[in-house]
Amino acid sequence: MWNKASLSLWAFVAASLASAVQLHPVEYQVVRWNNFAFHSVSVDLRSEQVSPAVIHSSRLESIWSLVQEDTPTVAVTGTFFHPTSASPVGDIVVDGKQTAEGYRGSVVAVDWYGDVKIFDSVFEKAIDWSPYRFALRGTVRIIRDGIVAPDPRSQKFRDPRVWSRAERCAVGTTNDGRLIIFATNHAVTLSELGKAMLQVGATNAVNMDGGTSAALLYRGDLKVRPARKLTNLFVVYERSPFLLPSD
Predict the structure, then answer these.
(1) Closest by alpha carbon to 108, among 81, 137, 76, 80?
(2) How many Cβ atoms from other residues are within 10 Å of residue 78's Cβ?
(3) Which of 12, 37, 111, 177 has its CA 20 to 30 A from that of 97?
């Protein structure tokens, strides 16, 4: 039979375990693979103090301008966009509202509980976004169920710069509930990027926009600096996903 002392002890242990999970929910490291260096951020999605999201502007802006209203802990380049019109190639959803259309590529989405989903979409077919608070479509799948097998042509990407060597950004998930955000200043292939992400446990991952658009901001420090203005970012805040940005 449980007495008051036993219940108090159990409550203390449970609270300690919960605190341990949330002690360092966002961590940064440099990962090296095949003489390339990759900036890697691990986000513990089990923590109640992390909130993935998407930032989107209808015009080209500096990364500092995009994040200035509510500075995130992590920000990485989002989906591909036209460098003149600023129009994204894929759908974008921000706080439950679709802000851009484009019917190609894989998806990285955040549901209403703050969990991140990576999935493929059917070319030129609309998606029901109601289960998701944030989403970026138009990304290139690089890891599927633990296997590195990028094939952008099958996803209807025609620009050879998508699969050539370039500075790159990526977002992935792991089997143990982590979000992996990756970026590199080195010119690497999609396969090299995927193989490096396997080292940190990514089992599903997508390549974001890169080249001169590649950017990674971590705790106010630009680890990868973009050479041009951007329109959208995938970000992580250190706060509950159930809080509004102004809270």
Answers:
(1) 137
(2) 29
(3) 177
pTM of the model: 0.89
pLDDT tens digits, 64-95: 999 998 899 999 999 999 999 999 999 999 99
CA distances from 64 to 43, 67, 216, 233 (A): 22, 5, 11, 11
- Under the banding of pLDDT at 50, 70 and 90, the label for residue 7 is very low
CA angle 121, 232, 54 (to 5 degrees): 70
**How far is the C-alpha of 38 from the C-alpha of 182, rounded, in Å?**
7
Q: How many Å is the Cα radius of gyration of the chain?
A: 18
What tokens appear for 39 in the block?
Answer: 């900036």
Q: Give the CA angle between residues 188, 194, 200 to the nearest 5°.
A: 115
Average the pLDDT over each of 1-10, 115-124, 172-181 and give the range with the smallest value: 1-10
CA-CA distance, 185 to 58, in Å (whole number)? 27
Dihedrals phi, psi of 119, to nearest 5 degrees: -150, 160
